[in-house]
Design goal:
This protein is mainly α. It has one domain. It has nine helices and no strands.
């Protein structure tokens, strides 16, 4: 497993982690934008410029710590703002909540397809294989971590969009003590699930 996760020394894994997180957040804002909410657009958040998205803890420290200590990938960027009152349906709000996860899954699937095409044509070198595997595993990890149904992660946001009565106060969610606890619980669940998910992904690639 480590051979597929650890790309040799360099900035490539860092760049992939950072921009996968940024694309995840942009997707939330764009999903709202195409439904008529321009909050993220007016805030200048529908851009690939990393400076407007980076959260030092979630975009740099946590992802690098997870990568170099456990060989796994998760993190977050500054949340992209949107106004749910501009979204007409619960399904639309759920789509906004799920857009980041769907984007990471799409990137992973696209990388798998490219890898298999290149492999079938004998175009895969050792370095290229490692690079593509890094893209796949980063995005699979981000999708899985964000799917965990614990606020403030996207999995719970999807559920709350579909079932508004399950709404949880933002005062609780963004309380530092709660956030630390939520991250710890999510990390435990993630560590239990990710070996099975990685195994399934590798079976698709093989």
């Amino acid at each position: 497993m480590n051979e597929t996760l650890v790309l040799s020394q360099g900035l490539f894994p860092v760049i992939i982690i950072l921009f996968s997180i940024i694309l995840h957040e942009i997707a939330h804002g764009y999903a709202a934008y195409i439904q008529g909410d321009e909050t993220a657009y007016r805030a200048g958040r529908l851009t690939l410029n990393p400076l407007v998205h980076i959260d030092m803890m979630g975009s740099v420290i946590v992802p690098l710590f997870a990568f170099f200590t456990a060989g796994t990938f998760f993190g977050w960027a500054k949340p992209v703002p949107y106004n749910p009152y501009n979204i007409r349906t619960r399904i639309g709000q759920a789509f906004v909540a799920a857009a980041g996860i769907l984007t990471n899954i799409f990137i992973a699937i696209l990388a798998i397809v490219v890898f298999k095409i290149a492999l079938s044509n004998g175009l895969v070198s050792g370095r290229m294989g490692e690079a593509v595997m890094t893209i796949i595993m980063v995005n699979v990890s981000l999708a899985l971590f964000n799917l965990i149904p614990i606020p403030p992660f996207d999995g719970m946001s999807i559920i709350q969009s579909l079932f508004p009565r399950l709404h949880i106060s933002s005062r609780l969610i963004y309380n530092p003590v709660y956030l630390i606890g939520a991250i710890l619980v999510a990390s435990v669940l993630y560590s239990m699930l990710i070996p099975y998910v990685f195994g399934w992904v590798q079976s698709l690639i093989a």
